[in-house]
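Structure, all two chains, one model.
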Amino acid sequence: MSNAHALPVSDTAAEDARRFQANLELLAEMSRDFAVSRDLDAALLKAVDHITCSVDAEGGALFLLDDAQENLECVACVGATEITGLVIAADKGIVGRVVQNDLGEIVRDVSKDPNFFGGVDEKTGYTTKSILCAPLTVKDERIGAIELINKRGGDGLFDPDDLHFLAALASSAALAILNARQAEALVEQERIKRELELAREIQSSLLPQAGSDGAAIAGVNQPAREVSGDFFDHFPLDDGRVCFCLGDVSGKGMNAALLMAKTASLYRCLGKAVLSPGRLLALVNREICETAARGMFVTMVGGIFDPRTGVVKLANAGHEPPLLLTPEGEFQAFEADGPPLGIIADPPTKDGYPETEIKLNGGSLWIFTDGVTEGYIDGEGTELGDAGVKRILMETGGKPLMERLETVVGVIKPGEYGMRDDVTLLGVVDDVAARPAAEVQAASAAAGSETVMFLRLPARADRLKVIRQAVRSALEYLVCEDEMTEEVILAVDEACQNVVRHAYGGRDDGEIAVELRRDGDDFLVDIQDFAAPVDLEAVKSRDLDDIRPGGLGVHLIREIMDDVQFVTPPAGVGNLLQLRKRLKTKAGAS
Amino acid sequence: MKHEVKEAGASVVVAFEGDIDLQTSPAAREALLEAVGMGKPVVVDLAAVSYIDSSGVASLVEALQTAKKGGQDLTLAAVSEGAMRVLKLARLDAVFTIHDRVDDAV
């Protein structure tokens, strides 16, 4: 063995070397324990055991400071007495003094130390003679201390070498504890991050899908963090109009996101039934006031757009003014005329938030959060500003809506610490050329026509006589010529009996609505049911060679009226048959 | 709608009065088929019919077809202005034999 020929070394040097070696091994082992253990307490107990054995003490305990640094708790204990779970004030006892002074100590005779806490000995009957204690510290961060009790053998007293050795082990243990804690925190952070990602997914599912290129309403939302306090929405109403909104919840982060989810859900749910943005905002406001956390509020614009007329009805609860861009290239801002939602439960007026009617006339309307105007467009803190938004909207005129929205959002650069704020923008474009042709016709016909009579009654055979009499009265009122009167009565009766016989499939609780109108020189009859839409193929005119009863009614209607067509009902439900015939008045009538 | 069935000479005369529409045409149809079932020539008196719709006309057509199958005659008589208008619109005025007066038909 090569050691046999080594130079003789002093006892102390040999002891140092042995301890150094032991120290290294112990450190390596402790590091492994901490690395593989998911249970910090179990790893600590193992460490205390190792250290106690290495120093050859009768007992050992490890104390950790709580988060508030007010108390020390014994989290691991071996040997002499079991004190795991013991909590003492962070400045009490010898261990407290060591932590406060951040300095290891040998107390050779505890009975002479004023700080010695004899409570444990009294309870256990064990006699503590000597204590060796070293702080657990990493840089300036105090974590706790390790305390060893009664050296085995000899005089039972610790010596400075023991302290030296314990101090070295303690600082290693401190580092290991800190690492383990950080690893734990990292796992927690990962978990929170995953939850935030999930929250973001759920939140973005609350936003409407991006529309097609020809969409009249679309929006974009770019959250500054995982989740956003901004939102927008748009959804079709039964009457062919489109309800939309854009809002900004005060604050950021999870609580803003939750209030956003609530507000957006309320708006969408109520928006399908309450066809007035002003009343809608008032309802949402009341709900938020009743339940939202104090100090949080929502600025919001709600509106309804009619793509057939290009008219927007708007209500603004404390939000940035929406911008109207006219086809002539002029901008007009619509200031808020009500407070943000969630502040005062009572609405500004008895009808809710005031409404503004805006005729787009082929122009467009833009609603955005302050994240757009206050977004940085370079690395020097230059904000996009109102002027910047307007400039981009002008420059992108004629482009598809989504492209215009993305251009605006695209110029906003994330700063050094990410996006400054959530960026949300919604556009409503009135494309006159793209207005649905049939709808425009129907709308204009409706607009220019005068209702003579409107009936809504059960779709039953015994009510057909009532309808015939009503049609007769209406035609008399219009001084319609006799022959035409009789024919039109037949045509309307035939159309109505088709509803009675077929529309509700034998149910007798259905309803039929008949509207008689005069449109200039024409007489118009709208016959609407509220049943499932019919297969138009099945309602074709009768083949004249075939005199089966079924098709005869339709044949009569077509024979009598100038124009017969199914149109989309304004409310989007049921079937609407529109009959039209040039009005023949009695000779001499004006 | 009301109806009356009587025998006149060798024929059965079914006379209707009032509106024949979706509500009443099932009764009209039943009366017509019953009359045809008597096996004699049938004359349908439409003088007092104020209104007839496609379901009423369909009943007449069905009765005619049934009669023809049995080799019987079914004719219309004294057709009111309103009923004639509908028959013409349905282009069925040529399908039926139509007499001006009931007496001419029996």
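The mean pLDDT of chain B is 93.
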